[in-house]
Amino acid sequence: MQSILEEATALADEGGLAALSMRALGRRLGVEGMAVYHHFANKDALLDALVDQVFHEMALPEGPDWRAGLRARSVSERLVLRRHPWAIGLVESRTAPGPITLAHQDHVIGYLRARGFAGRASAQVLAFLDAYVYGFVLQELALPTAPTPVVEAVRAHEGPGDGPSPFPNLEALISEVIDAGYDFADEFDVGLDLLLDGIGALRG
């Protein structure tokens, strides 16, 4: 079963969920597509199992320091979702969470409750962190290679001479930040620290 899930994950990594079919998975495994149905009743069952596989790869928060524990879990979550670009849409669309998914969420909630977060606050923390990580990864995956469209558009409006720029603040930002070697990926830790600072207010 695990080897089938690993091959299904690799197939989705290479071609997206559109490339994942029972027949294609069977070919990858060297068997007839119908043989896969001995392990999964249908493709929906396979997709639900893939969600469990994604959560299986994510680190669980551990240790007495709740900030360190949540940070480690968020960093791991980001890496897993970047490794499997199809995963966010699948995780958000499935309606039958499996035992690994439920155990992961149960652990996070229990971890938070044991470290001073009440029930509602625990649910809020889990939702806020997931929303931040999912959103950041979606932006990372969608960002074009440099220069970005905004940079190109601003520079396209730069005319000859010393006349004022129509977009002085954007131009200054490009000069001070983008041209200095800005990398969006570096902002993950900054945003995560800000979020964890705010989460601390929900504790106790």
Task: Give the structure's gist in a few sentences.
With 204 residues, the chain is mainly α. The protein has helices spanning 2-15, 22-29, 33-36, 43-57, 66-83, 87-93, 99-114, 119-142, 149-156, 168-178, 187-199.
Structure description:
This protein is mainly alpha-helical. It is built from 11 helices and no strands. The relative contact order is 0.09.
Span of the ends, CA to CA: 43 Å
What is the β-strand count?
Answer: 0
Order of helices and strands: HHHHHHHHHHH
Helix content: 55-70%
> Tell me about the biggest sheet?
none
Task: Specify the structural class.
Answer: mainly alpha
Globally, the shape reads flat
Mean pLDDT: 90
Uncertain regions: pLDDT < 50 for 5+ in a row? none
Q: How many H/I helical runs? A: 11
